[in-house]
Specification:
The chain has helices spanning 25-29, 31-54, 72-75, 90-97, 119-130, 135-149, 160-189, 203-212, 228-241, 251-273, 275-286; strands at residues 11-12, 18-19, 108-110, 195-197, 216-218, 224-226. It is mainly alpha-helical. The protein has one domain (22-46, 63-286). The strands form three sheets. A two-stranded antiparallel ribbon has the order 1-2. Strands 3-4 form a two-stranded parallel ribbon. A two-stranded antiparallel ribbon has the order 5-6. The longest helix has 30 residues, at 160-189. The chain is globular and about 50 Å long. The N and C termini lie far apart (54 Å).
Length: 288
């Protein structure tokens, strides 16, 4: 394996273009903190711009939409995003609105009682979804093991604990970059970063909803809109990850790997949609 200890070097081509040399894992992963700092500056600016205009939650524009027809059975099963009781405090409401799934790493909003995120809530949710929750790390641990370690990808990193450690660092870094790119773009475009829970009856209808909402989301007015921030962030994080992955990586790799990440979002949203039933089943099996 190549020596990973020599410093990062830049080279300027004769045509004035800037090019990265081939990076070994330690050098490439070292770029992650710099990338995060720069994007966090953008995120702070973006959240500040939307905070003043989004503190007053809007009502959903299409409460009768076929994708959004609620069922009373499922309203109480979501992560607290139902009509609050008079006894609930503001802090409890915010905690429920920003609750992060420990497996998917996502927060949820109920379609029938949709309230957009304020700038302050976006900032808090960014930290929870990317750093301060179990869900922020469950995905990278799982994908690094199942998708990378078992297939020995990339092969240059070898097997064993060291190989898995490199793959886990790579997946974690890529996940954080994806969330860090998504958050400010979503704030600027007024797109929600949470999964919009359907609240419907019927397996087929809810499965269709989970698939559709892998590509769309709500804006601050409760309208369905293309999830530009999320989709573009997958490709951006894949492109940045090529700076530390061993071996040559072409533009086609960014396209194919980014599309693969989007495809993986479908089963994740499926899990998010049926999470209340999963939790209920597990609790019932373990109850005395």
């Amino acid at each position: 394996m190549q020596n990973a200890k020599f410093p990062l070097q830049w080279s300027v081509l004769s045509h004035g273009k800037l090019r990265f040399p081939s990076l070994t894992p330690a050098r490439g992963v070292g770029l992650i903190p710099t990338t995060l700092v720069l994007t966090l500056i953008l995120a702070s600016s973006a959240f500040g711009q939307v905070s003043a205009g989004s503190d007053a939650p809007a009502s959903p524009a299409h409460p009768g939409n076929a994708l959004n027809e609620p069922s009373s059975q499922n309203q109480s099963a979501t992560n607290g995003n139902v009509a609050g009781s008079p006894q609930q405090t503001e802090a409890e409401n915010e905690k429920s609105r920003l609750a992060v799934n420990p497996v998917t790493g996502m927060a949820t909003s109920l379609a029938s009682n949709y309230k957009p995120l304020t700038g302050k809530e976006r900032w808090k949710l960014y930290w929870k979804q990317n750093y301060l929750s179990i869900g922020a790390y469950f995905g990278p641990v799982f994908t690094a093991l199942v998708l990378d370690q078992t297939t020995n990808s990339p092969s240059q990193w070898g097997g064993g604990p060291r190989g898995y450690g490199l793959r886990l660092a790579s997946r974690t870094g890529s996940s954080i970059i994806q969330g860090t790119v998504q958050a400010p773009v979503a704030a600027l475009l007024h797109e929600d970063v949470r999964y919009i829970y359907s609240g419907q009856h019927g397996f087929k209808r809810r499965t269709l909803h989970a698939i559709i909402f892998s590509f769309v989301t709500y804006n601050n007015e409760g309208h369905i809109t293309p999830n530009v921030a999320n989709l573009s962030a997958y490709y951006a994080s894949t492109a940045i990850s090529t700076t530390w992955l061993p071996g040559p990586r072409s533009r086609m790799y960014t396209l194919s790997n980014g599309s693969e990440q989007i495809a993986l979002a479908v089963p994740v949203n499926f899990l998010q949609e049926f999470w209340p039933e999963i939790v209920h089943t597990v609790r019932r099996q373990h109850s005395p």
